[in-house]
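To: structure subgroup
Subject: Chain for Friday's discussion

All,

I'm putting the inputs and outputs inline so they're searchable in the archive.
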Amino acid sequence: MNEHSFNKWEDEFMKPDDKRTRIINAAIKIFSCTGYAASNVPSIAKAANVSVGTIYHYLKNKQDILNVALQTTLANVNSELTTIFQDNESIEGSYNALFEASSLFIKNETITVHFLYGNLFNPDLDETSIQSRQETTKLLVDFLKKGQSKKVFIDSGLHTQLSLLIGSLFMLSNFYWLNENVPGESAPTMNEINHLKNQIWNGLTVSQAYF
């Protein structure tokens, strides 16, 4: 099985020396920590170490920054999901690769995941962002449908299974977020992560297994 990691997005989509990229990176952090509604262009400019005028040279406004940030992030997520599902013929192999890549991404890019968690359904998303989100959902739903058709996953509502799969991973990201931002909170242990992996799988499948 090939190793996968969503973390390659920094290399393929983000160039740290590029001002536009610095603006997007700063915006992701500001939107994650402050919240989109409470954020403003001057605070993003300060975090990116550029002038407000520089931001408007590259991007129209705060809404444009949000959409570019989301589209850039989801472009990598969708690319990686496509690769995972194409490279692994078995449902078990796809699930294993998906969980390993996702948990690593969550651990290493907690701020980015928190940004996604808070803005996937932001009312300021444009049509392109909505289509990107729908593509992500379709990739995951198609995986679940394939699992059901092969009698690996139980015949259940797709929304239920999507909630189990993605909701659990987002909750994992929240624990990492708390560890980084709230004194006294601890990050999930590897043992806990493995237990989560097993429990999600066992919740989806007709027979139990342990990874």
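Points worth raising on Friday:
The domain at 6-204 is CATH 1.10.357.10 (Tetracycline Repressor; domain 2).
The first helix runs from residue 9 to 13.

D.
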